[in-house]
Amino acid sequence: MKILMVEPGKAPKEKNISGTLDSMQEAVGGTIQAIYPFDEPVALICNDDGKLMNLPMCRSIHEIGDIIFGSFFVCAAPPGHRNFTSLSKEQIERYKERFRFPETFLRIGGDAIFVLRNL
Questions:
Q1: First and final CA of the chain: distance in angstroms?
Q2: Mind spelling out the 3-state secondary structure of the chain?
Q3: Are 94 and 3 in contact (CB under 8 A)?
Q4: Where are the domains of the chain?
Q5: Nearest Cα to Cα of residue 56 among 117, 118, 7
């Protein structure tokens, strides 16, 4: 399965994984959570316990008003399919552009978080 891997402090990169639960958990370093923040049928797969494990903040997802902690990947999630599938070339390019700039996060005054794009 062709995915787009996004890691803290790094530019996104294409990666092939088998698509098994084990391969997805290995990619994010633990149990997985699927998030569907975008209008098209894709899933953002992240570590379900990323915040609790205090993993590094990776990217802000403005569509849901949250930050993903730890590495995550984007894959296709076609309606009516039981499994995630490979991204198309167009989707890979679209999400490479969406996540191309790593972000730096600063905590100021407790819960306030400021996002700085690393250009």
A1: 30
A2: CEEEEECCCCCCEEEECCCCHHHHHHHHCCCEEEECCCCCCEEEEEECCCCCCCCCEEEEECCCCEEEECCEEEEECCCCCCCCECCCHHHHHHHHHHCCCCEEEEEECCCEEEEEECC
A3: no
A4: 2-117
A5: 7
Q: What is the pLDDT of residues 48-88, one digit of tens each?
A: 999 999 899 999 998 998 999 999 999 999 988 889 999 99
The count of residues in the chain is 119
Please enumerate in sequence order all residues whose Cβ is within 8 A of that of 107, keeping only pairs 6 or more positions apart, or say none. Answer: 113
Q: How many angstroms separate the CA atoms of 58 and 66, rounded? A: 11
Q: How confident is the model at residue 4 (pLDDT cuts 50, 70, 90)?
A: very high
Q: pTM of the prediction?
A: 0.90
